[in-house]
Amino acid sequence: MLDKLGRGKQTKLWRSSLLGWLYHHDWQLAGLLAVAVIAAAVFALWPRPDRTAATSAPSVISADDVEAAQERTVIVYVSGAVRNPGLYTLAASLRVTDAIVAAGGLTEAADPGCLPNLAAHLKDSSQIVVPLAGHCARAKKGKLDINLATREQLLLVPGMDGALADAIIKYRNDFGGFAALTELKSAMGLDAVTYKQLSKTLTVP
């Protein structure tokens, strides 16, 4: 009985001393509570990195990717007087001469004076035509040097026939070539109508 009374008395004393300590230190507890509240607010409001923006940012292009893009390929069709005409897949950095080599090179029937621009860069889906001798497109589309044209090229000129082509070649051999295109009229006696037609294609540089 006495033991229980002693314990109760001790409990009351402990509570009284605790309440007294809290009473005397209540401003310190309030300060700690305020610090805790501020810390929680700072943590909640502190800016964080946007993971969505980070994942959507463009990736850096590596040197290997750049090199691969530069080494892209093109498909060209090589035809005409080449040994192996057909489609060829080649690097875009190559030139027309490389495409002709890939097709086996020129045949003996090729016209070396009427080749495409060998220094031109390859273009995708393009056709490279190596003309056969006597089938030069320049004789049809552009001015043809009358002093250099072959018989086959002369025959492609509108208004030209075999006899006139032979006469032009004989005149070149006899007199060393034409000094002016008008010699077709003055020296060879060509009529004005035929001369006008030939002058649209033939020239003396």
User: Strand-and-helix sequence, N→C?
Assistant: HHHHEEHEHEHHHHE
Low-confidence stretches: none
Largest sheet: 3 strands, mixed
Number of helices: 10
Mean pLDDT: 77
- Rg calc: 49 Å
Number of strands: 5
Q: Roughly what fraction of the amino acids lie in strands?
A: 5-15%
How far the N terminus sits from the C terminus, by CA atoms, comes to 141 Å
Walk me through what this model shows.
There is one protein chain. The chain is mostly helical. Helix content is 48%, strand content 11%. The strands form two sheets. Strands 2-1-3 form a three-stranded mixed beta sheet, with helices on one face.
What is this entry, summarized?
48% of the residues lie in helices and 11% in strands.
Distinctive features:
single chain; 205 residues; mainly alpha; three-stranded mixed beta sheet; two-stranded parallel ribbon; 5 strands; 48% helix
Topology:
Elements lengths: L1 H23 L1 H20 L5 H6 L6 H8 L2 E8 L5 E6 L4 H7 L24 E4 L7 H4 L2 E2 L5 H5 L6 H14 L7 H4 L5 H8 L2 E2 L2
Parallel strand pairs: 1-3, 4-5
Antiparallel strand pairs: 1-2
